[in-house]
Specification:
The chain is mainly α. The chain contains eleven helices and no strands. The mean pLDDT is about 85. The radius of gyration is 22 Å and the shape is globular.
């Protein structure tokens, strides 16, 4: 059983690698055949050359953006879990709090980011808050759904044991919400990079967002696409890591699917 799972994983890896290779090959050939100007669309080879010619610039910028994204993600996820737990324990407050949360979520990110930069300055704090806001709502909704959608048979069993509300919460609702948390993390973790970059566009002294903005202003598209490549690679790595964590954390679902 385990060997078949490993074979499937290897096959899926090579399929994904082949698709990516074909995509970039067509991109390279398209630019070469059409003789597209570099300020319109640079070839992948030109982008990689730019990336390898400026490793320290991109390394420093990536560390800033990734740091902002990770800290903001931790804050947003923690706030979402805490508030979801509170609303499940006190369901009478759910409608009012969720209405406010939806109102905040519905506000465009590009409208909030300049305001936070204006109020809090050009440091990392506005970027972290934007990332936290972007991560907060999906975690909140998924955790509430997971805690509310417990197995009815298990709920009846716990009640037959005269389990308290907190015991049901600890031993039934929290384990039930773990798969939903993993799903939320796989959505919000890559998005946290976008939140950090968008916040950097409104004003920053460093980061991939600043590099992208300066490159766009100067029509230096190889520099711009190199930053995009880094963000895309970071997003894929984070997603793959969280998928591996999900397999380890939600082992009972994995075993059932096999």
């Amino acid at each position: 059983m385990k060997s078949s799972v490993k074979i499937k994983k290897k096959n899926s890896f090579w399929v994904a690698a082949t698709i990516i290779f074909i995509f970039f090959l067509f991109w390279e050939l398209f630019v070469l055949i059409r003789k597209t100007p570099v300020y319109i669309l640079p070839a992948p080879s030109r982008i990689l050359v730019t990336l390898f010619e400026n490793p320290l610039v991109y390394l420093q910028a990536s560390s800033i953006t990734l740091g902002e994204a990770i800290i903001g993600l931790i804050i947003g996820v923690s706030a979402g879990i805490i508030l979801a737990s509170f609303l499940v324990l006190f369901p009478g407050l759910e409608d009012g709090v969720m209405t406010l949360a939806i109102f905040i979520k519905s506000t465009p990110l590009v409208a909030i980011a300049p305001l936070l930069t204006l109020w809090l300055g050009f440091g990392v704090l506005p970027k972290i808050l934007i990332t936290a806001l972007l991560s907060f709502f999906p975690v909140l909704v998924n955790i509430i759904s997971g805690m509310q959608r417990v197995d009815p048979a298990l709920m009846d069993l716990f009640r037959s044991w005269n389990a308290s509300k907190m015991e049901i919460f600890r031993h039934l609702r929290i384990p039930s919400s773990i798969p939903y948390l993993c799903t939320a993390l796989k959505i919000t973790a890559p998005l946290s990079l976008i939140g950090a970059v968008v916040a950097e566009w409104t004003g920053a002294s460093g980061g991939l967002g600043r590099i992208m903005w300066l490159a766009y202003s100067n029509l230096n598209l190889p520099f711009l696409f190199a930053a995009i490549f880094i963000l895309a690679a970071a997003g894929m790595i984070i997603y793959r890591f969280l998928s591996w964590v999900e397999i380890k954390a939600v082992f009972w679902q994995t075993s059932n699917s096999n």
